[in-house]
Input
Amino acid sequence: MTVYAGQGDAQRSLALLWGAPEEPRTGRSGPRPGLTVDAIVSAAIAVADTEGMTALSMRAVGERLGRTAMALYTYVPGKAELLDLMHDRVLAELPTGQRTVGGWQEAVTAWAEELYACYLRHPWVLQVSQARPVLGPAELAAMEALLAALRPAGLPPLRLRGAVAALWQFVRGLAAATADARGAAAATGVTDEDWWSARSARLAELAPDFAERFPLLTALQGAGGGSPEDGRLEAFRGGLAVLLDGIAAAAEPSSEPPGDRAWGTAWADTA
Output
């Protein structure tokens, strides 16, 4: 299931993302209602975290808050705008500010590991298409943090855009693979270990010459160890190290900034 961000009313969605709108009044005398945009977003994230994106609806969020779906529309125009707010709220979990310890490789590694962990805490975010960004403060801060981490590498604009696209999609892709694997175990009731054990035994019967036919694959598989989950984490760290080696090789130290359009075009490159 793929959903697209930025599909709601642009004026109201951006106002909610960037502003601090006054909580609405009911038009009746008495106290203001005990509901806020923040509470609605938190409840929506809880629904998506526990039940998945398919379960997300204004009605489900309202039920979690003990309200009707109609009560939510006073605060949030609709599900499309709510999704933007949810997406940006999740990315707000990422640290901001430039790191002062270690070199740029360490800074980029920390950024990637934090984004990877964030995706796995909220796997539904991986179903939100990158075709159109939310353009919220947290989303832009995450991009700014990556650009700040990469700045000391001295990449010219074209290579910087390529590095940003490669890093963002690498983290997203590996996180999606891990989330899918976890989801498969939960949906089927069969662990990764049991699934591989059953098929490996049968494959050995059907192809006793497997090692001779696929020597490189056999050697690669033999080099691994631990559980499939451990293997996915090793693949993430190993692949990230290779990417950073490539970025270092492509770096051309320069005192000039990457250019005004570098961050904007990077969004299109990550789609």
Residues 53 and 177 are 17 Å apart (CA to CA).
